[in-house]
Amino acid sequence: MKNGKNILLYSLLGFLGLLFLAPFAWMVSVSVQDLSGVFAHPFRWFPDVFQWDNYRQVTSLLPFWKYAGNTAFITAMVLVGTLLSCSLVAYGFSRLRFRGRETMFALCLSTMMLPGQVTMIPLYMLFASLGWVDTYYPLILPAFFGSPFYIFLLRQFFLTIPREYDEAALIDGASRFRIYWSIILPLARPALITVGLFTFIGTWNDFFGPLIYLNSPDRATLTLGLNMLKAQVIGTGSTPWHILMAGAVLIMLPNILIFFLAQKQFVKGIAAGGLRG
After folding, report:
1. Which of 23, 77, 126, 181 is in Cβ range 3.0-4.6 Å of 140 for a Cys bridge?
2. Are 264 and 177 in contact (CB under 8 A)?
3. Cβ(54)–Cβ(243) below 8 Å
4. In a domain, 37, yes or no
5. In terms of Cα–Cα distance, which of 183, 116, 111, 176 is closest to 146?
6. Is 181 exposed, middle or buried (0-12, 13-18, 19+ CB in 10 A)?
7. Is 175 among the domain residues?
8. Rounded distance, CA 138 to CA 120, Å?
């Protein structure tokens, strides 16, 4: 009976896995076909001739590597800002005792109820008044003020770390910041990697933010560059979907690589456990 349930469960999981994998497989397949193969009936998952030149074309039609550098710079700065600000705030909410702590934490979480569409126009007006439109400041600086969801995740993990570590460090003369930097952060590696993974994927793939704040083509990101390539061919009668999909595959490669690397470190951190020295 138990084996039958396991077979049914694994079959269902396998079906769902294939279902979620289908769009990605279609994208990869289109990226190595010519334009006629994109709309062929029936669709050929494996073309007769693989058009690897599509990847060269997308890097030549766009300043692809310049856009990749722009995206990497923004992503790196957002990663630093998010991990530092969220971990520091989460440390205060989880390890320090002060009046109004729970109220402030509740107010922090309540900001999650505001959708981004509500704050989009006020934020744009603020950044425009500061002269920051068409710069990277609106995309980077908000990360240094924390994210309530990531603060919540880190706080919950910090609460699982025994306070005896803090007390022993205080007896030895360590400051609160030294405890945060040298004890809490190393023990919170699984949570930090999780936050970093979500931040990397969200920032690397972000399209809406650069679309709003960046006007100069030289400052564009990869996702914005692909949209610009599509806009260039509007009215020509044919959209080069095979070229666009080749660009999308190249953009996704860092996500896939970072995910597998972070997954390995995440499992390793969980196996080590937050209670081990």
Report:
1. 77
2. no
3. yes
4. no
5. 111
6. middle
7. yes
8. 11
Spatial contact of 82 and 145, defined as CB atoms under 8 Å apart: no
**277 residues of the chain, pLDDT tens digit each:** 567 778 888 888 888 888 888 888 888 888 888 877 777 778 788 887 888 888 888 888 889 899 999 999 999 999 999 999 999 999 999 988 889 888 999 998 888 888 888 888 999 999 999 999 999 999 999 999 989 989 988 888 888 888 898 889 998 888 999 999 999 999 888 889 888 988 999 999 999 999 999 999 899 999 998 888 876 655 555 678 888 889 999 999 998 888 888 776 666 544 443 333 3
Q: Is residue 15 part of a domain?
A: no
What residues have CB less than 8 Å from 31, skipping those under 6 apart?
A: 54, 55, 242, 245, 246, 248, 249
Q: Residue 135: CB partners within 8 Å, gap ≥ 6?
A: 213, 219
Quickly list H helices, the chain.
2-31, 35-38, 53-61, 64-95, 101-110, 116-129, 137-140, 148-158, 164-171, 176-179, 185-187, 189-204, 208-213, 222-232, 241-272
Range of the domain at 261: 65-272
Domain for residue 48, yes or no?
A: no
Q: Is 110 exposed, middle or buried (0-12, 13-18, 19+ CB in 10 A)?
A: exposed
Report the domain count for the chain.
1
Nearest CA-CA partner of 201 in 181, 223, 219 = 223
Q: Beta-carbon neighbour count of residue 253 at 10 Å?
A: 9
Q: Is the bond leading into 42 cis (omega within 30 degrees of zero)?
A: yes
Q: Which CATH number goes with the domain that contains 265?
A: 1.10.3720.10
